[in-house]
Design brief:
Length: about 260
């Protein structure tokens, strides 16, 4: 983790803007959206058993919330936001890649869910004066040029007593735990461009760990900070592997870091 995370500036303003454009174009690429929705880090969310394990973990993380308003940032195809909606939250989902939002809208319609999808920047969510009982994000902090700033901004958007739910995964030893990126070029599907690969090396949270999130949450004034597991997911994944061997089931272990405002 770079040292300037708490004050949160990767680079000068213009460089940070350029980084965002590179990432926005990368995530909006139709092949990448398709690859993400069907890929190993998302495929389990199409399975009712895995979804249930995730929803149980999200419920535990949220606990009692001051209101039923949820905000999910960098929502992609609505991965976490759709589960807040299934849990009964009035849910807003934000992403800066329109093609990701389109996939999220399609999947929500297939599930009969009503969510509000907004195109916008996770570092400065365009939600006006609205405040939320729970705010979440999965696999997004690593991609932000100003993650420390973003977390403090999200805390401002919580109601008093609201919960911040940050989700990542523990990968093989020695690998980053909050990111989904592979620095080498991919053989199949969406090709990582040189500008994108170079941008990865400039991100303060590229290689962050759950413990780094706890530090930043504490610095942002949160209390009752804890790390949770997604209990029951291993069994659900095993059943999915047996029932549908063709589905690329993920093997990394997710974690949820939650704090209370
Ligand atoms: C690794 S994907 C994760 C998607 C989703 N959270 C999930 O768990 O499946 C990262 C997502 O964050 C979005 N994203 C990255 N930086 C963002 C930013 N500054 N503002 C809004 N969305 C952003 C990308 O467009 C992409 O959809």
């Amino acid at each position: 983790m770079h040292l300037d995370v708490l004050n949160g500036v990767t680079a000068d303003f213009e460089s940070a803007r350029r980084l965002k454009v590179v990432f926005q174009q990368g995530w909006n690429h139709p092949d990448r959206v398709k690859g993400w929705v069907g890929g190993a880090l998302h495929a389990e969310f199409h399975d009712p058993g895995c979804r249930q394990a995730w929803k149980d973990a999200l419920s535990e993380a949220a606990g009692t919330t001051p209101s039923d308003r949820a905000l999910d940032l960098g929502t992609g195809p609505g991965t976490i936001s759709s589960m807040w909606a299934e849990l009964g939250f009035r849910t807003t989902a934000i992403d800066f890649a329109p093609n990701m939002l389109e996939a999220g809208q399609r999947l929500a319609a297939e599930r009969g869910l009503t969510l509000e999808f907004i195109e916008g920047d996770a570092e400065d969510p365009p939600v006006g004066e609205r405040r939320f009982g729970v705010i979440s994000t999965r696999f997004v902090l690593y991609t932000l040029p100003h993650p420390g700033y973003a977390i403090r901004r999200w805390v401002q958007l919580l109601e008093p007593g609201g919960k911040l739910v940050l989700i990542g995964h523990d990968r093989d030893q020695g690998q980053a735990s909050g990111s989904t990126e592979v620095r080498a070029p991919r053989k199949h599907g969406w090709q990582v461009g040189e500008d994108y690969r170079a941008a990865l090396d400039r991100l303060p949270f590229m290689d962050h760990k759950a413990s780094d999130l706890q530090v930043v949450m504490e610095a942002a004034g949160m209390s009752e900070i804890r790390k949770l597991a997604v209990t029951g997911l291993d069994e659900a994944r095993e059943r999915l592997r047996e029932d549908q061997p063709e589905v690329p089931v993920g093997s990394t272990t997710p974690y949820i870091v939650v704090g209370r405002k």
